[in-house]
Amino acid sequence: MALALRPAKPSIQVRNEALARCLSTTSRHNVALPKDAQNMRTAPRDHQGSLKAPLVNPADKFESKADNLHKYGSWLMGCLPKYIQQFSVWKDELTIYIPPSGVIPVFSFLKCQ
């Protein structure tokens, strides 16, 4: 057991007098395998069939909402160009990016709008 845990090469000295341990691997003669064990790297694989499900983008059903949110995000950026740095639309979510100093003015604008 101690032979398997010992590194393949002895430790080497590095610049700052610290020791670095070499990586080692366990050789096959240290592992108990049956003689008739098959190498699984060469085992046959099942045949991969063709894809039967149609490719569907789940974001396609939100396309009409996304267009409206994109227009709304553009309008917000036009109204508050000092505070809104950018916006993004993904599915049915509008995300506006604002600096920390613009939180109160932007939220007040959205609340009173």
Explained architecture:
With 113 residues, the protein is α+β, with helices and mostly antiparallel strands. It is elongated, with a radius of gyration of 31 Å. It has a domain at 59-112. It has three helices and four strands; from the N terminus they run H-E-E-H-E-E-H. A hairpin with a 5-residue loop joins strand 1 and strand 2.
What class would the helix/strand composition place it in?
A: alpha+beta
What portion of the residues fall into strands of 2 or more residues?
A: 5-15%
Which sequence of strands runs across the widest sheet?
A: 1-2
Report the total helices.
3
Oligomer: single chain
Radius of gyration: 31 Å
What's the end-to-end separation, in Å?
Answer: 74 Å
Global outline: elongated
> Helices and strands, in N-to-C order?
HEEHEEH
The strand count comes to 4
Largest sheet: 2 strands, antiparallel
Mean pLDDT: 81
Query: Uncertain spans, ≥5 residues at pLDDT below 50?
Result: none
Helix content: 25-40%
In short:
The chain is built from 3 helices and 4 strands.
